[in-house]
Amino acid sequence: MHLPHQHYTAPSQCTHTPPPQFSPTTHYVPPGHHVLPPLPYAYNALEKVIDERTLRIHHDKHHRKYVEDLNKAELSLQAALTNGDFTCIKHWEKELAFNGSGHILHSLYWTSMSPSDSGGQPHPTTQAYLDRDFGGVPHFWAQFSAAANAVEGSGWCALCYNPYFRSLVILQAEKHQNLTQWGVVPLLVCDVWEHAYYLRYQNERAQYVKNWFALVNWPEVELRLAHFLAGRPDQR
Ligand code: MN
Questions:
Q1: pTM of the model
Q2: How many whole angstroms separate alpha carbon 137 and alpha carbon 145?
Q3: Which domains does the chain have, with CATH numbers?
Q4: Percent of the chain with pLDDT over 90
Q5: How far is the CA of 113 from the centre of ligand 1 (A)?
């Protein structure tokens, strides 16, 4: 498979593939309704690398807690929205990010592993992207393992597809709770760094944010949403 080297503006040349066998969800989940997905293999299936006890605690205790606390955060934010009381917004947004990312990343971690030996050979589309973006599997693995080994403290290493640049990228997440839910696609973003408003508003960020609403480009938000929905037919 040939992939462009400089301009990635053409639609992805990936052939259509079915959605992964297992993800946090492939359907809409109402607030507070996330469930711990079952492991797609037995707890002792990865013994050659990861022991049964570790896998059982990791999945049934750690991942379960993320799911429970994600539900709690979503329901608390729903209550705040209903009551119009956002005094605890920072707390619940942090909980939403920490536990949402924990749920998503663990779900992806379980299915990033398989008891059957894949032989270390990527399938054709993955191979083409790894060739273009890293110069082949050995180079990809050199960077991935170096990045994984260099994560400070607890964290993650992830091979990601960047839909904006249409390319693969290896990223570290040193603290997945740093206010994002990994895997999300931003649709509407407001820059609240001081450089975005300071000359006119100085320290009055709230006034800038209030005025900013009048600038929102809703047709563009609609286009972005439709674009990513079209690219992910399993999401709705
Ligand atoms: Mn974990």
A1: 0.83
A2: 12
A3: 185-236 (3.55.40.20)
A4: 41
A5: 14
